[in-house]
């Protein structure tokens, strides 16, 4: 666990809770309860839209504390073995150690001739000679040479490879300047020896990592699987095609939530559109086979916001009920009976993105046993107005290294700013001035 999450959790729940990580189905751990601070009335917030209001009377944790709670809420999924062609994006469950020397034998780094000793040399073979993948040739003795291709096994007794452009072969003889011993030979074990650790546990398997695993002799790998996610889109006001009309709006969260979760490391099983049907929501939540459920909308206390009531009916345990962050403060994190975590995203688009990066991102990292991302910072190119008490997440572009330019169209219901952004700047309560150093949240790319 990183210091970032340990410190934040200790601030949120006290020293005892920072050490707790109990077990549940799918690895869910219920944090210990700490004494809650005395609630303070939230001031009027000119930055939040009416739809972004959280239920009244709740005590909302600080943004960093909520992220720590999400990371601590689950244990990694059980490891499984996958063939290399299915392991991309998964996390190594154990260190990757070489099963062989790399290279496994001395190989030629160039096309030319394998030579023994100083020249000139007598050719022991005509034509293409030794090719990559061909069995070993007869040993060479001083004064002998054999044609060799890049990647071919160097015969025993060879002292160097003479490049093709540096030699002249005719009538069974090879002439050229004698190369230094070892020239253009990749010696056995140059990259690693058998048993060397190539990648640590918890490393994400990239295309290059899969190539390394194959070169090191692996057909399968022990991995933490990508968490399976199910997306439930809520709201009768949503249209799924065509132009907005008659008071109804296009669903922006359905098309983007699944891809965001995929980019954050999940395997999205399905996106279901349930409207404002409490019974359909109850059935979906109680029968899901996902490792994490993500809902969009219905996190506040409006007349058609059924999510909290359905969670209560199911006997779910609320781990985070609102967060001191704008936009998105009605977001929630719950543990369903049996241990499945549920992330509730607000219905406003930018507020939903805030919820994804505040709660879903650390939760998915914990399920996949991935460490937290290293923190990155930049200096603001302009002033940013803040909320009096809450953290604010603001879309920014990065016109040059170390500089963050705040973007317009950053309201809770807007996507125009985030669509053009390279990152979100974390603005502390009270705001920040031009030149202030602020933390950046990188936006995932598929």
TrEMBL record:
EC numbers for this chain: 2.10.1.1
Source taxon at top rank: Bacteria
Coiled coil (residue ranges): none
Gene Ontology terms: cellular component: cytosol
Cross-referenced SMART domains: MoCF_biosynth
One matching Pfam family: MoeA_N
Biological processes annotated in GO: Mo-molybdopterin cofactor biosynthetic process
Pathway(s) it belongs to: Cofactor biosynthesis; molybdopterin biosynthesis
Record-level Gene Ontology MF annotations: metal ion binding; molybdopterin molybdotransferase activity
Cofactor: Mg(2+)
Enzymatic reactions: adenylyl-molybdopterin + molybdate = Mo-molybdopterin + AMP + H(+)
Transmembrane regions listed in the UniProt entry: none
SUPFAM superfamilies, alphabetized: MoeA C-terminal domain-like, MoeA N-terminal region -like, Molybdenum cofactor biosynthesis proteins
Entries under InterPro entries matching the protein: MoaB/Mog-like_dom_sf, MoaB/Mog_dom, MoeA-like, MoeA_C_domain_IV, MoeA_C_domain_IV_sf, MoeA_linker/N, MoeA_linker/N_sf
Stretch list, region Disordered: 14-56, 170-191
Keywords of the record: Magnesium, Metal-binding, Molybdenum, Molybdenum cofactor biosynthesis, Transferase
Domain MoaB/Mog: 230-366
Function: Catalyzes the insertion of molybdate into adenylated molybdopterin with the concomitant release of AMP.
Family as reported in the entry's similarity comment: Belongs to the MoeA family.
Protein name in the entry: Molybdopterin molybdenumtransferase
Source organism of this protein record: Streptomyces marincola
